[in-house]
């Protein structure tokens, strides 16, 4: 692997687009540090230079298969240099958030970009120096050793793949390295191209979509009679001719459609008449049902009144029943008293009977005594 041998003897071409990206990145890093430290670009730059291009550092190409070791290191250093903690923690607490730092950085960008010490060409020069220092794999710069003022050197300058070229397409201001020419041409919006749909026009790439979707005569369009059945495939440019040429066919289609619609209209009319009849029938049925309902309502009213009268009668009967029941109760009481009296009389009768019986027995005994005395007396001398 070749070693970087110093800018003076090397081809100074590098990848133009990468150089531009790196310039932008450097602008952001410087603006960020200006915002953090409240310094000007001229005060920040020497420190940044020292961080990114340390004295005596030599970056060697990687011996492993891992590519871009030097560029990865540059990326790390840029990341560190643009962060709050990049140059020590002392001032890190000035910002409460990353968003706040971004806001202040973007406010400083224009100011830094306008500073003479860090204008566009100064940034590009620093970017080139960084690429020459870190790109040891020569992915983004040439670094070819050139003898000054020789024919070989002049030839190299004309053929170097990193030589800057500007886009040849009219209106395009893009700059890139020669090796990126094909890639740029394949997507350059100013590239003049024949119409994608094959009409005679040539358009720049960025206008192609609007042309093919708009005025291009080769744009496929539907015949206005498609809705009624014309299946012709025509382009915008052919449409006028098709409309003239296919007039008889379109008329026939329209006639057919008209006749179909007439049939449908007739069927609709018949359907409507049937519906009307149905509505009249339903209305009559509804009216009959309504009059039935009214009659039933009247019957219900009469029944309610009869019910009321019945209820009144029932109340009267209930009252009568209650008084009868009271009378019955009194009668019952009287019956019970009579039964009691009857029982008492029974008992008295029984006692009387016993008394009579005992009196009778006594009288019978006295009678017997008397008869004995009588006999004694008769027998006595
Ligand atoms: Zn070169
Ligand atoms: Zn271009
Ligand atoms: Zn076209
Ligand atoms: Zn048609």
Automatic annotation (TrEMBL):
<feature type="zinc finger region" description="TRAF-type">
    <location>
        <begin position="183"/>
        <end position="239"/>
    </location>
</feature>
<dbReference type="InterPro" id="IPR001293">
    <property type="entry name" value="Znf_TRAF"/>
</dbReference>
<dbReference type="GO" id="GO:0008270">
    <property type="term" value="F:zinc ion binding"/>
</dbReference>
<keyword id="KW-0862">Zinc</keyword>
<keyword id="KW-0175">Coiled coil</keyword>
<feature type="domain" description="TRAF-type">
    <location>
        <begin position="183"/>
        <end position="239"/>
    </location>
</feature>
<protein>
    <recommendedName>
        <fullName>TRAF-type domain-containing protein</fullName>
    </recommendedName>
</protein>
<keyword id="KW-0479">Metal-binding</keyword>
<dbReference type="InterPro" id="IPR013083">
    <property type="entry name" value="Znf_RING/FYVE/PHD"/>
</dbReference>
<dbReference type="Pfam" id="PF02176">
    <property type="entry name" value="zf-TRAF"/>
</dbReference>
<keyword id="KW-0863">Zinc-finger</keyword>
<feature type="coiled-coil region">
    <location>
        <begin position="286"/>
        <end position="320"/>
    </location>
</feature>
């Amino acid at each position: 692997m070749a070693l970087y041998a110093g800018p003076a003897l090397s081809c100074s071409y590098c990848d133009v687009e990468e150089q531009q990206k790196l310039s932008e990145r450097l602008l952001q890093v410087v603006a960020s540090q200006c915002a953090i430290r409240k310094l000007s670009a001229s005060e920040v730059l020497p420190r940044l230079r020292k961080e990114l291009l340390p004295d005596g550092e030599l970056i060697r190409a990687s011996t492993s298969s891992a590519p871009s070791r030097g560029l990865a290191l540059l990326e790390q250093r840029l990341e560190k240099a643009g962060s709050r903690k990049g140059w020590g923690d002392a001032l890190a607490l000035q910002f409460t958030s990353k968003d706040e730092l971004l806001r202040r950085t973007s406010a400083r960008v224009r100011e830094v970009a306008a500073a003479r010490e860090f204008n566009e060409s100064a940034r590009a020069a620093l970017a080139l120096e960084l690429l020459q220092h870190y790109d040891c794999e020569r992915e983004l710069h040439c670094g070819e050793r050139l003898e000054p003022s020789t024919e070989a050197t002049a030839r190299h300058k004309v053929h170097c793949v990193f030589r800057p070229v500007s886009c040849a397409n009219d209106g395009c201001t893009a700059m890139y390295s020669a090796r990126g020419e094909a890639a740029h041409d394949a997507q350059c919006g100013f590239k003049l191209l024949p119409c994608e749909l094959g009409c005679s026009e040539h358009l720049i790439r960025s206008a192609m979509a609007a042309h093919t979707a708009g005025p291009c005569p080769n744009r496929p369009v539907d015949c206005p009679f498609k809705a009624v059945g014309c299946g012709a495939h025509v382009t915008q440019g052919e449409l006028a001719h098709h409309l003239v040429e296919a007039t008889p066919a379109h008329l026939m289609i329209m006639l057919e459609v008209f006749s179909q619609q007439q049939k449908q209209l007739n069927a609709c009319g018949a359907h409507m008449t049937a519906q009307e009849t149905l509505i009249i029938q339903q209305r009559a049925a509804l009216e009959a049902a309504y009059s039935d309902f009214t009659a039933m309502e009247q019957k219900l009213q009469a029944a309610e009144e009869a019910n009321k009268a019945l209820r009144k009668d029932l109340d009267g009967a209930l009252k009568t029943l209650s008084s009868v029941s009271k009378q019955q109760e009194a009668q019952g009481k009287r019956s019970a008293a009579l039964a009691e009296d009857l029982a008492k009389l029974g008992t008295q009768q029984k006692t009387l009977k016993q008394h009579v019986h005992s009196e009778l027995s006594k009288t019978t005994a006295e009678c017997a005594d008397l008869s004995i005395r009588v006999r004694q007396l008769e027998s006595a001398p």
